[in-house]
Every structure is written in C-alpha cells, then in structure tokens.
Design goal:
CATH architecture of the largest domain: 2-Layer Sandwich
Strand order of the largest sheet: 2-1-5-4-3
Order of helices and strands: HHHHEEHEEEHHHEHEEHEEHEEH
CATH superfamily of the largest domain: Histidine kinase-like ATPase, C-terminal domain
Largest sheet: 5 strands, antiparallel
CATH topology of the largest domain: Heat Shock Protein 90
Strand content: 15-25%
Shape: rod-shaped
Number of domains: 4
Number of strands: 12
Bound molecules: adenosine-5'-triphosphate, magnesium ion
Distance between the termini: 57 Å
CATH class of the largest domain: Alpha Beta
Helix content: 40-55%
C-alpha cells in the first residue's frame, strides 16, 4: 500500500472517529437535556419487557399467579395482599390487584393517580404477561396475570417495578461514555500514529544508517527492507546503487591486482631472454666463442632468444589491444569448411614434419557460414595447434580437427593425445599468463597468453571457447561460432562489398 493511501486512510480514520465522537456526545447531551429519544427509549423498553422484575420479585409473582389459577378469590384478601406487597417492597416493587373496573389493592409505593388508566386492558388468554408503561416522565415495568374470580368477574394481579427515567440513566452514563469515547479517540490516534511511523519513519531511519555505512566505506551489507510503497521503491533503488558501488569497487580492486600481476609477469618473462642474450654476448666479447662453430652456436642462441622475445612482445601487444578493445575486427561471412581446409593445408606440413598423424573429420554437409575476422580466427587456430604440438608427449602423436554443426551453431573440435591438463588447471587455461606447469622457465613453456588471446578473439565473435582434458590422455579445445542463415550471409556480404 502506498504511503499516500496510508496517510489518506489514517486521516480519514481520524476524521470518522472524531465525527462519531461528536455525534455520540451530542446525542447523549440531547437525551440528558430533553430526556427523549425514541430509539433509546425503545432499547430501554425491550430490555425491561423481557426482564421486568428482580429474581425475588419474579418468584413472588409466580406465587400470585398460582393463587390466581387455583384460588382466585384469595386475591381479594386484603391481609394476604398486604403481606405480599410488604415482601415486594423489599424488591423496590409493588402489588396492584383489580376486579373489573374497580381496584382491589394498590401498593402505597406507587402514589400515582394516573396508574389505573395506564394499565393495560384485560386479556384472559394472557398473551403478554411482561411489559412496560410510562406515566409522563416515570417509567414502569410489570408482570401481570389475568384471571376470573369464582363468580366470573375478570381480575388482574400486577407486580409493578418503577425504573429510573431515560434522562436520569443517560445523565448517569454520560461521564462514563465521554471517558470511553476519549479513550477510544486516544487509542485510535496512537494506533494510526504507530502504523504510519512503522511504515515509513522506521525504514527511513534504516536507510539513513545505511547511507552512513556507505559513507564510511562499508559496502558489503545488505538492506533488508521489503515493502511495496514509495519507501520500498526508494530502498530498492538504494540497494541497487549499493550493489553497483560494491561491484565497481571490487572491479577496481581486481583491476589494480591484475595490473600489478601483469607488470610482474611481463618483467619476469622479458628478463629471462634478456639475461640469456646478455650472457652470450658477454661470452663473445670475452672471447669464449673462440671457434667459428662456437660463434655460430652463440649467435643462433642469441637469435632464438630475440625471436622468442619478439613473439612475446607481439603477443603482449595484441593481448593488450584486445583487452582495451582497440584491435579492429573485420567481420565477413566465411564458409567455415573452406576456412578450415585452407588452414589445414598450411598446417599439414608443420604437423607431418613433427611426426604427428593428422585427421580431418568434417561431419557436416553443404556450406556453413559464420561471420568472422579471418586473420584473427586463423591466429586462434594457430595458437591451439601450437599448444597441441608443444604439449604432445605420447607416441604415436595424433591430432584431429572435427567440424560439427546444428541449425544454430558451428562447432570446431581440436583434439590431441598429449599430456592433458589437470582438473585444477583446466578452468584457468584461458586466463592471461596462466600456465599449468608453473615454472616459467620450462623449455616448452610460453608466456601463457596464447589461449587468453584466443578467448578474447572468440568472445569478440560472439562465440564460445572451452576445453575438456584428461591428464595423460589428451586435450580437446572446442570453438563454437554462431551459424548464419543464407539470407544473413547475403546481407553480411553486401555490407562488406559496400564497405
Ligand atoms: N593442448 C594442450 N595440452 C596440454 N596442456 C595445454 C594444452 N593447451 C594448453 N595447455 C596448458 O594451458 C596453458 C595455457 O596455454 P596458453 O597457450 O595460453 O599458454 P602457453 O602455451 O603456455 O604460452 P603461449 O601460447 O603464450 O606461448 C599452457 O601453459 C599449458 O599448461
Ligand atoms: Mg600456447
């Protein structure tokens, strides 16, 4: 529920309660002042019609009723009637007996000349035994029984009890009612206040505390507030701001660490060949290479170290350009079967030269078009094949390229039977500078950039690259690229020709 609606409800609630309060007080005052309000009178009446006498009065009435049924003439015995009246007086009630139009007995308690006229007419079937009547401001409740004397005359016996008039009752009730109403007003006010404060003062306080925590640099807490109102929305916005700040802080921290690691790796990888080159040049300078053969060996070593440095610098340069998104990509629609066959033609010599038996398994038919940057994709394949050759130790050496496709994706699998990659190392081989064998000096080891570059390139193609491997049995690298439909391929080619 929104705060606007809550406020509206709370103010309306207070208004309605206050109005009710005013109305009730006003009506109570009216009754107190005039002593007359029909509906109140009715409620009052109904109550006394059901229950006009006290318990004791009721039992005396039952005795009189029994007498009227069994020995009606006794109800002319003034002595007896006075006795009953005496008993009734203790109950603040009185006795009245009539015979036809004359009055046989009237309790002194009443002292009311109009009483006779106010009494109900005879009704021998006794349909309404209990009822009320009033004489001007005075209000009476009674129980009555109609019977016949032995000579056939009609008679009635009444046990009558005077009740306080309405006005008096109301006057008595007024202070209690007023206190009650003020109590209701205060309680309603408190409840509504609590409802409103709980729904937005408290969450706002929590938000302020959170803002202070953020100011103090603590971003790892979580705001636990859930409501659908405006405060809830503010809280959601605040929480997503906190998350973003937290993430960007984390990223910054990671970037900083990466940068440090990068510098340390680069320095390490450059220092090794430079130290070697320096060593061999010093050897030449000091005349250690004193024969033409030695001199040739030294120069060859220096050359190969310079080549590996050149390769490293070249890889680093490419990686950093890819990382900074500064390497331009030139995409065009290429048939992947043609692409792989061309690449294989170039690689075949190298593979055969190293005694590797090679298998090309094209499990697709027809053309498989993907949008690729040819040079970059070739670089990826070269990096993968390089690794396969570099880490190949099992005889006979085997390497295969398999091409698979479904309607959406083209998959290339590069499988070798080399030494494989351990389970712990496998998730990291696409990280920059990562090498499964940690000693960076090993003769086979490169800089650990080949697969990182491959991943950057495939990511840029909107594809996926991953590896499966079994230690000692071999590794397979998979590249998945999005397959273009014929129409998409045509559009892509048109764009390129325009370009
Ligand atoms: N086919 C493979 N067989 C076994 N291990 C592999 C294979 N391909 C990659 N690896 C492991 O993954 C690591 C990362 O490979 P990556 O090509 O990125 O780096 P590198 O070959 O060490 O260096 P670079 O390619 O930069 O010369 C390698 O060091 C190697 O441990
Ligand atoms: Mg490599």
């Amino acid at each position: 529920m929104s705060i606007r609606i809550k406020m509206l409800l709370s103010f309306t609630g207070m208004l309605v309660i206050s109005l009710l309060f005013i109305l009730l007080t006003a009506s109570l005052y009216t009754i107190a002042a005039t002593g007359d309000l029909q509906s109140f009178r009715d409620i009052y009446k109904v109550h006394y019609q059901i229950n006009p006498l006290t318990e004791q009065g009721e039992s005396i009435f039952q005795e009189l009723k029994y007498l009227a049924k069994n020995d009606p003439d006794e109800l002319q015995n003034k002595e007896l009637l006075r006795e009953y009246d005496m008993k009734l007086r203790a109950e603040k009630s009185g006795l009245y007996v009539r015979r036809e139009s004359s009055q046989i007995f009237e309790s002194l308690t009443f002292n009311q000349p109009e009483l006779k006229q106010a009494l109900p007419p005879y009704d021998l079937s006794n349909n309404q035994i209990r009822s009320t009547f009033n004489i001007s401001e005075r209000f009476y409740a009674y129980a009555k029984f109609d019977f016949q004397y032995s000579d056939g005359d009609r008679g009635s016996v009444f046990v009558i009890r005077e009740r306080s008039p309405f006005a008096e009752l109301t006057r008595k009730l007024l202070p209690v009612m007023s206190l009650l109403l003020i109590g209701v007003l205060i309680i309603a006010n408190l409840l509504l206040y609590r409802w409103i404060t709980r729904s937005f003062i408290k969450p706002l306080n929590q938000l302020r505390n959170s803002a202070e925590q953020i100011k103090a640099g603590n971003l790892s807490f979580k705001l636990e507030l859930s409501s659908n109102d405006e405060v809830g929305q503010l809280n959601d916005a605040f929480e997503s701001m906190r998350k973003q700040l937290h993430q960007s802080n984390e990223l910054r921290r990671q970037d900083e660490e990466n940068r440090k690691e990068l510098i340390s790796n680069i320095s390490h990888d450059l220092r090794t060949p430079i130290t070697n080159i320096k060593g061999y040049i010093e050897g030449i300078r000091d005349g250690v290479a004193n024969t033409p053969e030695k001199m040739e060996t030294y120069v060859n070593i220096i050359h190969s170290k310079a080549v590996s440095m050149d390769k490293l610098v070249d890889e680093l340069f490419l990686y950093s350009k890819l990382d900074l998104n500064q390497e331009p990509f030139l995409f065009k629609a290429v048939d992947m079967v043609d692409f792989l066959e061309d690449s294989i033609d170039e690689l075949r010599y190298d593979l055969e030269d190293k005694g590797v038996s090679f298998e090309w398994d094209n499990q697709t038919s027809g053309s498989l078009i993907a949008s690729v940057d040819l040079d970059k994709l070739k670089r990826t394949v070269v990096n993968i094949v390089d690794n396969a050759l570099k880490y190949m130790s099992n005889e006979p050496r085997r390497f295969s390229i398999t091409l698979l496709a479904d309607s959406e994706w083209i998959t290339m699998a590069f499988k070798d039977n080399g030494r494989g990659i351990s389970e712990e190392a496998l998730p990291h081989i696409f990280d920059r500078f990562y090498r499964a064998e940690q000693s960076r000096n090993s003769s086979t080891g490169g800089s650990g950039l080949g697969l990182a570059i491959a991943r950057q390139i495939i990511d840029e193609h909107g594809g996926f690259i991953h590896a499966t491997s079994e230690l000692g049995a071999g590794t397979t690298i998979y590249i998945k690229l999005k397959r273009l439909t014929n129409e998409e391929a045509n559009i892509s080619n048109d764009e390129n020709s325009n370009y």
